[in-house]
Structure formats: C-alpha cells, structure tokens
Design a protein that fits this description.
Layout lengths: L2 H32 L6 H19 L7 H23 L6 H22 L14 E4 L2 E4 H23 L1 H11 L1 H6 L4 H23 L9 H16 L4 H21 L5 H25 L1
Antiparallel strand pairs: 1-2
Length: 291
C-alpha cells in the first residue's frame, strides 16, 4: 500500500471521527448522569441537521454559523423532552420503560421528519463546501477540518464546565450518587434536564457540522445512532473522554478499512472489529471476576 494513501486515509479518518466522537460524547454524557441508554440519540442528531438545513434555506446562514442557534434550540428541546417524558418513564424497578420510550421516540422523530420533509435528500449550501487544503501530498477537506476544530472546542468546553463550574460539579455529584447529591441540596431533576439538554445540544452541533459536507434524510439517524453505540463501546460506557477517543478510532478504522478491503466492505470490517472488542471485554471481565 502506498504510504501517502495510508496517511491520507488516516487524516480523513480523524476528520470523520470528529463527528462520531461528538455524537458518542452526547450519548455518554446522558448515560453517565442519568444511567439510561438513549436509543433516539441518532434521531436527535437528525433533528439538528434539519434545523441547520432550515436556517440555511430560510436565513441564508452557513452551517457553521447556525451552530449557536442550533445548540440553544436543541438544548431547550432536550430539556423539555426530559422533563415531560423521560422523567415520567423512569422507574425504580428497572429501566425497561426508558429503553422502550427512547426507541419509540426515535421512530416518532424519523417518521415525523418523513411526513414534513418527505424522503428527499437535502443539503445545506456552504461557502466552503468544496474547499480543500493542500499540504504536500495531503488533501484535507476544509469543512471536515472545521468540524474537527469544533469537536476540540466542544470537548474542552464540556470538560471545563464539568470540572470548574457550579453546574458541572452538581452534574458530577449527581452522576456519582444522585441520592447523596439531593440530600446536599442539589436539585437533581434540574440537573437531569440540563444534562439531557446538553447531550441534545452536542448532538445538534455535530449535525450542524455534518451538514456542511453531508446531506440529511429521515433515516440518517439510524446510521449515526449505530455508530454512537459503537463509539461508547470502544471508549467505555459513561466515559466522555473515552467517547472522544472511541470516535476518532472508529473514524480511522472506517477510512483505513475502506482502503484495505474496499469501500463496499468497510462496514463489515467495522462490525467484525466491534464484535471482537466485545468478546475480548467479556473475557477480561470474567477473568477479573475469577481473580
């Protein structure tokens, strides 16, 4: 294999992995605090993509300029969704209700998008949509590069917020012991709403970045929802930084795999590696329990 081709694949993989990392971080943040697996996270990304499309078509905003608007609206949407539906479905005897609810919400959101926007593929016009940065033999897509920069900024902001702000400390306290946090005066219901809203906002930001070079359709959430679960499995369920690394790893795995085995079989390679990782983790867990 040509070294320049492999290097190009690695760079492209890191760029693609930025989107996977963001959606994985949003899913992991919700799980880390609320201890629920959000099966409609891919569809929440899809809603963010459609919002970006509407802002682009109606207001003429570049996808990257819509990020603040999309983030705020998705935060409000996520917080309201958590307060009105998610909280009411949480039971002490298990999380089956939440699993079924989020799965059904995913179907509702995708079919609602199908009703409103039909099944057409839609994209947003970006001034830098076809721009390419040439670094020697490397060709780097500017929209993908900016998406990766946004990922780094979001990651730093999330970690700074969690570590240094009052809200972040309350979120960490709630994730460690919700009852103990409530006893000390933390309003856990508010924290849950903020956490779910923050997860939705991060997914919306990922959707806005994605719209600068990709397209949206009602079932696009299925693709990225599946990828998000692979990311959190690679990086560890509940670990935000693990999701960051897992997203980058998945992106590299996909692009390098498409070069090695062909684009038609890259998904097969990804899922084979995913299954192997699950098997290895299970073996390590059993060994740890025996030891």
């Amino acid at each position: 294999m040509n070294a320049s081709i492999l290097l190009q694949a690695l760079v492209n993989g890191v760029m693609v992995g930025g989107i996977y990392a963001m959606i994985g971080m949003s899913l992991n943040l919700i799980f880390g605090v609320m201890k629920i697996v959000n099966f409609c996270q891919g569809e929440i990304l899809m809603i963010g993509m459609y919002l970006t499309f509407l802002f682009n078509q109606q207001l003429g905003l570049d996808p990257f300029l819509t990020i603040p608007l999309v983030a705020v609206l998705m935060f409000i949407f996520g917080a309201l969704l958590q307060m009105t539906l998610i909280t009411r479905s949480i039971k002490e005897d298990g999380d089956q209700n939440v699993l079924f609810l989020t799965a059904c919400l995913g179907v509702l959101f995708s079919n609602g998008a199908l009703l409103l926007f039909k099944s057409d593929y839609r994209t947003a016009t970006s001034a830098i949509g076809n721009s390419v940065l040439h670094l020697g033999e490397l060709n780097i897509s500017v929209p993908r590069l900016l998406g990766f920069v946004v990922l780094c900024i979001v990651t730093v902001l999330v970690f700074t917020m969690l570590k240094y702000t009052k809200l972040g400390k309350q979120i960490r306290a709630t994730s460690q012991n919700a009852v103990g946090a409530q006893v000390t005066g933390v309003k856990t219901k508010v924290i849950y709403a903020c956490t779910y809203g923050l997860g939705a906002a991060i997914a919306g930001i990922a959707g806005a970045c994605l719209m600068s070079y990709y397209y949206v359709y009602p079932s696009v959430g299925n693709i990225y929802g599946t990828r998000s679960f692979i990311v959190v499995t690679l990086g560890g369920l509940g670990s935000t930084f693990g999701a960051f690394l897992g997203g980058l790893g998945l992106g590299v795995m996909e692009t390098v795999g498409s070069v090695v085995v062909g684009a038609a079989f890259k998904d097969t390679l990804v899922f084979i590696v995913f299954i192997l990782i699950l098997v290895v983790k299970e073996m390590l867990n059993r060994k740890r329990k025996r030891g």
